[in-house]
Amino acid sequence: MANFDLVTAEDVRLMQGLAQRVTATRPELVNGDATFGELAWNWGRGHASDGAAWPRRLWFSGGDLVAWGWARLPRRVRRSDGSVKDVTGADLVYQVHPDHADLVDEVIDWYEATAADLERTVVPSAADGFALRRWAARGYVTDPASLGDTGSWTQFNERDLTDVEEPVLPAGFRFRTADEAGPQAAVQAHLDAWAPSTYTAEGYQGVRRTAGYRGDLHILVEAPDATMASSTIMWLDEANRTAEFEPVGTHPDHRRRGLGRAMLLHGMRLARAAGATHATVACLGAPGHPQARGLYRGLGFRELTRDAPLIKTRASG
To answer: What mean pLDDT, rounded, does the chain reach?
Structure first.
């Protein structure tokens, strides 16, 4: 890894700036994991443990970042239940400004050189026809894991905040913020909802240091027994007046009680008070993953775009 530049907090701020500029004009071209909130969440929670396996390349024009690539290389992942997973392939997150679309070829060249002998995956936007043709020309095909009713592709959803109904919680439950509940409760809420998870207290401290994090927009639902039953973080993109929910989760013992719906409504009202006019959230889009998609649709979210997972195996060159 000595020959690579690794992703830093300052890089993420520049990447978020490009996400804001693309969102302002062509939001359907923002790639999966390249949104304002996803960048902060993914880097913050994982840089301490996985950052040594995260090389990056940046492209500038006139002093502005116009393209970037962030490769995630083989690493050992430790989860909250004590299990260990060895990641053996490479995956790429990237973004190219539409005014510099030809740079996708340089992104591909860099990725091919960086992960040359590995199985490689990437998730461009399904709306980016030019990029999809360039990836296909280099031997990338639809990832089989994304096919069928249980496919792994993600859709990105949005709604406006003009009319947000009043949230209703079951008796004895109440809304909290991470500022009020404290770091231990915020971390445990995520671990309970997503077990087994790679999230740690150190990862949460990284999240708190990222651009866009606000403890007053990190929402939890506290149960009568003081368990944090649901949680979400909202990432406020002030330039586009958009609030992005990432992640969203509920403790298994408290699901199907309307907590997620109430929390999201409460969050949208807070986001509107903070200046947002739109909210966004991602979810798995395949038919076999109806829970989150149904929740968001019932709250007025509609699909804006989806990703197109691609893969290139070692045998493909």
So the answer is: 96
Query: What is the distance between the alpha carbons of residues 21 and 15, in angstroms, rounded to a whole number?
Result: 10
Helix or strand holding residue 14 (H, E): helix 9-25
Tokens 């949460």 correspond to what residue?
204
pLDDT in tens, 291-317: 999 999 999 999 999 999 999 997 665
Q: Distance between CA 226 and CA 297 in Å, rounded?
A: 30
What span, in angstroms and rounded, lies between the C-alpha atoms of 26 and 220?
A: 32
Q: Which of 280, 1, 231, 196 is nearest to 115 (CA)?
A: 1
Percentage of the chain surpassing pLDDT 70?
Answer: 98
- Give the pLDDT band of residue 4 (cuts 50, 70, 90): confident
**Helical pair 36-50 and 201-208, crossing angle rounded to 10 deg:** 140
Say how far apart CA 71 and CA 62 lie, in whole Å. 25
Under 8 Å between Cβ of 293 and 260: no
Q: Distance of alpha carbon 128 from its chain centroid, rounded?
A: 19
Query: Beta strand pairing status for 141-142 and 310-312?
Result: antiparallel
Contacts of 172 (CB under 8 A, 6+ apart): 223, 224
Tokens of 238: 């002030």
Contact between 204 and 80 (Cβ < 8 Å): no
What does pTM read for this prediction? 0.95
What integer is the mean pLDDT of 144-166? 96
**Cβ atoms 265, 166 nearer than 8 A:** yes
The per-residue DSSP string of 171-200 comes to TT-EEEEHHHH-HHHHHHHHHHHHSS----
| Residue 185 · residue 223 · CB < 8 Å | no
First to last CA, the chain: 22
